[in-house]
Design brief:
- The chain has 165 residues and is an alpha+beta fold.
- The protein has a single domain, classed as Alpha-Beta Plaits (2-Layer Sandwich).
- It has 4 helices and 10 strands; from the N terminus they run βαβββαβββαββαβ.
- The N and C termini lie far apart (33 Å).
Length: 165
């Protein structure tokens, strides 16, 4: 049985546009999974990153993909971590700049709170760089716990986000 899932992609290292585009391609190779649609690319300033005035953190390129998958939420998350690892993702500290970040945002209407997976993604409703591309491809989406996506987008969340394509 196929399930609808949404995945956020982000990168701010090693040619971020190319990293996100490669991640879209990698999603098409996941077992028992189809890429249904992908958002435009969005450029955003880093949030919650440690900034060094001598070495500023580069902007992020973000996007969202809609998938249909037979994978369980846990197996899909494991596959997404595999895509990150293949891209060279390192985790030297929390919120470090990254080659690629793949976050499972929503899987059907499931609500999960475990040590390895929280659905819906715990911060997605406060992140314009997630909400705007998600709204672009799924404007009628209702996020479990939080409600309709259109009601979550505020001018404050979307003010510093630039749509690229």
């Amino acid at each position: 049985m196929m399930h609808q899932a949404f995945v956020a992609l982000g990168s701010n290292l090693q040619n971020p546009i190319a990293q996100v585009e490669k991640a879209f391609i990698a999603l098409t190779h996941l077992p028992k999974t189809r890429l249904i649609q992908k958002s435009s690319l969005y450029q955003t300033a880093p949030i919650d990153c440690i900034d060094d005035p001598h070495n500023p953190v580069p902007d992020f390129i973000n996007a969202v993909a809609e998938l249909q998958t037979e994978l369980s939420p846990q197996d899909l998350l494991t596959a997404l971590h595999g895509i990150e690892n293949d891209a060279g993702r390192e985790r030297p500290y929390i919120n470090a700049p990254r080659v690629l970040d793949c976050d499972l945002l929503v899987y059907e209407n499931m609500v999960i709170d475990s040590a390895k997976l929280t659905l819906p993604h715990p911060r997605m409703h406060t992140r314009g760089f997630v909400l705007l591309p998600l709204f672009e491809i799924a404007p009628q989406l209702s996020i479990p716990i939080h409600g309709k996506i259109a009601g979550l987008i505020t001018p404050d969340l979307s003010k510093d986000i630039k749509k690229l394509t």
